[in-house]
Amino acid sequence: MQQVDDLPQSIRAFMQDNEEAMLALLQELVLIQSGSGNKAGLARMADALAGIMPPAMQLQRLSFAEQGDMLMAKTPKAAGERQLLLLGHTDTVFPPDTDFHFYREDESKSYGPGVIDMKGGLVCSIYALLALERFGLLEQIPVCMFCNSDEEIGSPASWNITCREADQSFAAFVMECGGSQNGIVTGRKGKSGYKLIVSGQSGHAAQAGTDKPSAILEMAHKIIALEALNDPPRVSLNVGVVRGGIGPNTVPGQAEALIDIRYLQEEDDERLKAEMDRILDAPVVRETACSLAYQSGRPSMPQSASNETLFQLVQSQAELLGQRIRPEFRNGVSDANVVASRGVPVLDGMGPLGDFDHSEREYMLKSSLVERAGLLALSIWHCCRKQQALGF
User: Fold this and answer.
1) pLDDT tens digit sequence for 151-177
2) How far apart are CA 281 and CA 230, in angstroms?
3) Which CATH superfamily is domain 4-189+301-390 in?
4) Is there a contact between 285 and 218 (Cβ–Cβ < 8 Å)?
5) Smaller CB count within 10 Å for the chain: N or C?
């Protein structure tokens, strides 16, 4: 077994020795088209990950009618003890017919769909586990790695699985990309998505005049009132999609809008929902009515004291590796929000660094792949060893 005193240097050397293999695995994964709706591509992702998972991990493949295959991997000790949970997702936002289907590198960066969101994070996870196995440490600790296939569409099939595994965990690391300034995510806003439907009375536009029960006109009043609820930084509300009517010569009988809300605390969400109900219950245009339907969302991930304690542990390991990290708060959501809702300490953004995810400019800083894999390996080991001392 590897001596703990030598572990930081040994892990750093292991990652450096395997840098080419890590980039080759990244290229293999990026070139698998795995948009959330591509079941065949997501099955290939599960095949690729299962094929390189450390032999010490016990594998379970999960299949679904609508979502792609998912992979659960656990060390033997995870069956009888509270575990450390690693979370990643194999899907990307890019559909099968996208033109963004290449992988390329230059001296400092890798480019391709999902290179940081989050196939680079999957590579870091695999090689962190391989490093711990190489030094005889993996079988001594309770680790579960869950790779879902539906994170980009709100985790409809994996949500309850994530909750179940979180309830069996003392802490969790989520492998979304790291912040551009070496950030590790200690908190995230929550999100609620709604569909607003406004009903009016259709008719001929030439005979309607100004006093008409137009669903679009009422929607316009509602959008202005709803947008006025913005209260940064605590709350942001955005009406992002509006549809209605069948033609310019017809009074629109129906209109709909999609609304995105981000909030710091759950009470902010509750307060905002009450304000929205008040606005929607007071029609401005005659013979119109509104209904609001919840679509999807994730609860907030507060920057809790336990998250801070977990960050300090990871920060101490970063210092041993000669790395500097900092805590970061993000407005976006991830599966870390789901873990946080179960009261489990969680850090996100543990993956490699890059930018422009969800776009054809997505890139990863190549040097960060080795660095973050080493940091993850060392953090997993020390988090498991110090679980009781941390109070988790």
Assistant:
1) 999 999 999 999 999 999 999 999 999
2) 19
3) Zn peptidases (3.40.630.10)
4) yes
5) N
CATH level 3 topology of 193-295 = Alpha-Beta Plaits (3.30.70)
d(CA 297, CA 266): 12
| Bridge partners for 260 per DSSP | 193, 238
Per-residue pLDDT of 312-360, as tens digits, reads 999 999 999 999 999 999 999 999 999 999 999 999 999 999 999 999 9
CA dist., res. 303 & res. 185, Å (int): 9
How many residues does this entry show for the chain?
A: 392
The segment(s) of the chain belonging to CATH 3.40.630.10 are 4-189+301-390
Strands (E), 130-281: 143-148, 169-174, 183-188, 190-199, 203-204, 235-244, 250-251, 254-263
Residue type for position 369: L
Its pTM stands at 0.93
SS3 71: strand
Paired tokens of 42:
């997501």
Closest CA relative to residue 149, chosen from 132, 161, 163:
161
What percent of the chain is helix, strand and coil (3-state, nearest 5)?
Answer: 40, 25, 35
Where in the chain do CATH 3.30.70.360 domains reside?
Answer: 193-295
SS3 of 231, please? strand
